[in-house]
Design goal:
Length: 494
């Protein structure tokens, strides 16, 4: 798998690209770039370390000057750290004001100077400097505060980022102070002939309005599942994320009483995802998925000779398995009734008629897995390696694609719409729902959607492993999805 760490992730809306997050293996938002403007590097040197090009990591004159100024002021007003020392501090990740930390910082700075050119040190600085929040580097700061990438930042926006360097949180919360420092720095750049009078005038007359464009941290393992296009030169991933659906999913997770993971598909592409356990959880965590496989089995059985009127025992099965049923039923159920009530015995009996091994081959093809991953109990949703909610959602999205609807699938969807209406109390045509429980009822699955969008929800850690307690799960789904689904929309599969 390619390492996309540091790549910025974008989503598209109305034909335009907007930043969504950064690929990172820790909590920090660190977006990397291969190019930082040379004039901005000159500004940085003038503002932070005028003798940067001449010293070897430690500027003794600056240290002596800082000591003198601090003594005269009666407090610490200046530091003597060079750009290289600041880089060392940022990479060490330790801001404690101790002698040991200062020694480590100095040694690290000397190491940088020995192993890198001055320009390489500047690039590393631009990439690693801390900007408050969980932001690292100028690119992340530009994406967060202005919603813009490196090349799109204006001269005024670059100067603002240089302005807040010494105290990002302080200056962001004191915009009047930041404006004064901004004007001061612009005048200093003018005095050193680094900018023109016209540029200085534009700087001081400009009104900089930083914002808070939340940047999400995504694990590298997520990238292949959401990438639509890769811009290697710009270190960008253009994703399949639909921001409105993503906001809906994120709010659902944030307001859930229990840990929950959700993924959403449209046209077989991931358009939203999230989890209480981390962004990678929907893709890498696998478990048994219970009765959520029954709709696939229903269609397979109907396509292979099981008639709509044929009934099967709901109380026992030909394989002599002891299985738990959620409710009591009639003694005999046809396939539509078995699907509606999610009766295990009836499905075992129907599969036994067609052939267990043939059915397992169908499931392995459906999930693009080795046949050895499936065994007889896969009829009830168990597999050797488990199934992720990404795999489950993709299977539903592809199997029930609007362009791939058959008579058996329409029969199945009619039953799933009845389940949707019964469980969620929402009167919506052609929306579907199928649920499943595993791990002694501590994991609850719900696959639902309409002809356009498929959602998979996994709720974990149900405190009471009691089958009579499923009401709260459906209430939570209904509360959230009643606003997502429109009762006025007449959804159509064909």
């Amino acid at each position: 798998m390619k390492d996309y760490s540091g790549y910025a992730v974008y989503y598209k809306k109305n034909g335009l690209e907007y930043p969504y997050g950064v690929i990172s293996e820790n909590y920090e938002c660190k977006a990397i770039s291969e190019h930082y403007p040379s004039n901005i590097k000159s500004y940085l040197i003038q503002i932070e370390d005028r003798r940067f090009l001449n010293h070897r990591g430690i500027d003794y004159k600056a240290i002596i000057r800082a000591i003198f100024e601090n003594v005269m002021a009666g407090k610490i007003t200046q530091g003597g750290s060079t750009i290289t020392q600041q880089l060392a501090r940022n990479t060490l990740g330790n801001n404690e004001k101790t002698f040991v930390r200062k020694v480590r910082e100095t040694l690290k700075a000397l190491e940088f100077e020995q192993n890198f050119t001055k320009d390489e040190i500047l690039n590393l600085y631009f990439e690693n400097v801390y900007f408050g929040k969980n932001l690292r580097g100028f690119r992340s700061a530009g994406l967060y505060y202005f919603g813009k990438d490196i090349k799109a930042l204006s001269n005024q926006e670059w100067l603002f980022l240089l302005t807040i360097l010494r105290g990002p949180n302080y200056y962001i919360n004191n915009l009047e102070r930041s404006k004064k420092r901004y004007n001061f720095l612009s005048k200093e750049l003018l005095d050193k002939n680094l900018i023109s009078k016209n540029r200085h005038r534009k700087n001081i007359n400009s009104e900089i309005k930083p914002s808070s464009n939340k940047l999400n941290v995504l694990r590298n393992v997520v990238a292949p599942f959401i990438v639509n296009r890769v811009d290697e030169k710009g270190k960008k991933l253009i994703s399949t994320i639909d921001i409105d659906t993503q906001s809906f999913v994120s709010n659902y997770i944030a307001n859930s009483k229990y840990p929950v993971s959700i993924i959403a598909f449209n046209k077989n592409e991931v358009i939203a995802f999230g989890s209480s356990y981390g962004t990678d959880y929907p893709f890498i965590s696998k478990s048994n998925v219970g009765s959520t496989l029954k709709p696939f089995l229903f269609c397979y059985l109907r396509d292979n000779g099981v008639s709509v009127n044929e009934k099967f025992s709901a109380f026992s099965n030909s394989l002599k398995w002891e299985v738990r049923e959620v409710e009591k039923y009639k003694a005999m159920l046809d396939l539509e009734e078995a699907l509606f009530y999610s009766n295990n015995n009836s499905f075992i009996n129907a599969v036994s008629k067609i052939g267990v091994q043939k059915t397992l081959i169908f499931l392995s093809d459906l999930f693009n897995r080795e046949q050895s991953d499936f065994f007889p109990s896969s009829i009830l949703g168990a597999t050797k390696k488990g199934i992720s909610i990404y795999e489950l959602g993709l299977a539903y999205s592809m199997f029930f694609s609007k362009h791939n609807i058959t008579d058996s699938k329409l029969e199945c969807l009619t039953v799933l719409n009845k389940i949707f209406r019964n469980k969620l109390k929402l009167d919506i045509e052609n929306a579907f729902l199928k649920t499943g429980t595993t791990n002694d009822n501590k994991e609850r699955f719900a696959v639902l959607g309409n002809p356009e969008t498929t959602f998979v929800i996994l709720r974990n850690e149900n405190a009471v492993a009691d089958y009579s307690k499923e009401g709260s799960f459906f209430k939570e789904i209904r509360r959230n999805f009643s606003s997502y689904f429109s009762s006025k929309t007449n959804y159509k599969w064909i």
